[in-house]
Amino acid sequence: MAEEEPVAVEEPQPENTYMIRPNFLSKFRPATVKETIHIVLNDMLSEKTYDAEETTNWCKTIADEIKTKLKDHGFDRYKYIVQVVIGEQRGEGVKMACRCFWDSDTDNYAQDIFMNDSLFCVAAAFGVFYY
Amino acid sequence: MPSEKHRSKEDTWGSKELSKSIKEATSDRSERKKHRDKDRDKERRKDRHSAREDERNDSADRKHRDKDRDRERRKERREDGEHRKDRDKDRDRDRDRDRDRDRDKDRERRERKERHRDKEEDSRDRHKEKDRHRDRDKHRDDDEEQRREERRRRKEEDGEGRERRRKHRDEEDGEDRERRRKHRDGDERDDKERRRKHRDKEDEGDDDRERRRREKERRHREKNDEDRERRHRDDRDERDMDRHRDKDRDRERRHKERSEDDDEERRRRHEEKKRRKREEEEKRKEEERDEKERHRSRKHKEEEPLRPRRQEGKGQSFRVKRQQEQAPSVDEEEVQNDKHGVEVTMGDDDDDGYNYDDDEFEDYDDDFEDDDGDNDSEPQREMSAKDRELHELRKAIEAENMATLRSRQRDTDSSGVSPSSSDTSSSRPKTGRTGRTFVNFVAAKQRVISDKVSSKTKKRGKELMRLIDLDIASFDMFDLQPTKEYEMYIRSFGRSDTKQAYVQCNEDNIDRDIQTEEIEYRQKWTQFPADDMRGCGGGDDEVEDDEIAAYRAIKKDIDSARLVNFLQGAGQVITVLLEENLVDKGSGNLQSNQRQIVFSEGYTQLNPDLPFLKDRHVVHIEFHPIQTHLMLTAYSMPKVALSKDKLANTGLLCVWNINEPSRPQKVLTCQSAPLSCCFNPTKATLAFAGTADGSVVVWDLREPSSMHHTHSIKQEEWVIRMPTYSTDGVHGDENHHSPVTTVLAIVSPVESMKASLPKGAGVGNVSDETTGLSFQLASIEEQAIINFWTVVEITNPDKAGSESDLGLMPGGKVKLIKSSFVKLESPARDIKTKSSVRAFQMQLLPKDPNHLYVGTDLGCVIHTVRYGGKAPPKAFRSDLDVPVDIVTLDFSPFGLPVFVAGCVDGSLRLHSTTSEYPMVTWNNSTNGMAIVKVQWSRSRPSVFYVIDETAKVYIWDLLERDGSPVKIEQFAGGRLTTCSLSNDHSATGLGLPGRRPELAIAAESGMIEIHQLNDQFYKAAADELDSVASFLEKIM
Question: Is the ipTM of this complex over 0.85?
Answer without folding.
Answer: no
